[in-house]
Design a protein that fits this description.
The protein is 22% helix and 31% strand. It is an alpha+beta fold and 198 residues long. The protein folds into two domains: 94 residues, 3-Layer(aba) Sandwich (VC0467-like); 87 residues, 2-Layer Sandwich (Alpha-Beta Plaits), CATH 3.30.70. Belongs to the UPF0301 (AlgH) family.
Length: 198
């Protein structure tokens, strides 16, 4: 676990990490949120919530609305890929968080084994079965202005932990928060929302 007092606006160490919402999270949109951090610098921070399914939104319907499918579609992907709410910012903008076996011109390598792509071309490849082996599809993102996330960390709103591909892609959305906390060696029932210093 990282000492939150060491977080500065110029650090980029949060990139590729997970933020885990603490029980005292004041913003109900982030209760038990697990956020994969894509960017963090002196201009602000950006991450994708990876454990919040969007009720009533089907990937197949979204693909039809965007008109990215043709006759050559992978039915398994079309009807099994879950749509997640990546956060409240630009909720109509889509991102594919995926394994390193897929890359396009606009793909961003966040970690050696976890990349992100946000183009319609990526969706076309995925729908046709030529996408990554592991992936999550999210709409929207979580964003922070300069210094905002650092203050939230100091206020004990977030835990920081390493992101692993098996946790990001392999654990069901409903169990990601608890699983991530347990991997840190922490009993979720013992977490306190009170901030303090040792």
């Amino acid at each position: 676990m990282t000492d939150s007092s060491d977080v500065s606006m110029t650090d980029t160490f949060l990139v590729g990490k997970l933020l885990l919402a603490m029980p005292n999270m004041g913003d109900s949109r982030f209760q038990k949120a697990v956020i994969f951090m894509c960017a963090h610098d002196d201009k602000g921070s950006m991450g994708l919530v990876i454990n919040n399914p969007l009720p009533g939104v089907e990937f197949s319907e979204l693909v039809a609305q965007l008109n990215v499918a043709n006759d050559d579609v992978d039915e398994d992907i079309l009807y099994s890929l879950q749509v997640l709410s990546g956060g409240p910012v630009e909720s109509g903008r889509g991102f594919v968080l995926h394994s390193a076996d897929f890359a396009q011109k606009d793909t961003v390598r966040v970690k050696s084994d976890i990349h992100v792509t946000g183009t319609l071309d990526a969706l076309r490849e995925i729908v046709q079965g030529r996408g990554p082996e592991q992936m999550l599809f999210v709409l929207g993102y979580a964003g922070w202005s300069p210094g905002q996330l650092e203050q939230e960390i100091q206020d004990n709103a977030w835990l920081i932990t390493d992101a692993s591909a098996d946790l990001v892609f392999g654990v069901d959305a409903a169990r990601k928060w608890e699983n991530a906390i347990q991997r840190m060696g922490v009993n979720p029932a013992m977490l306190s929302g009170a901030a303090g210093r040792a």
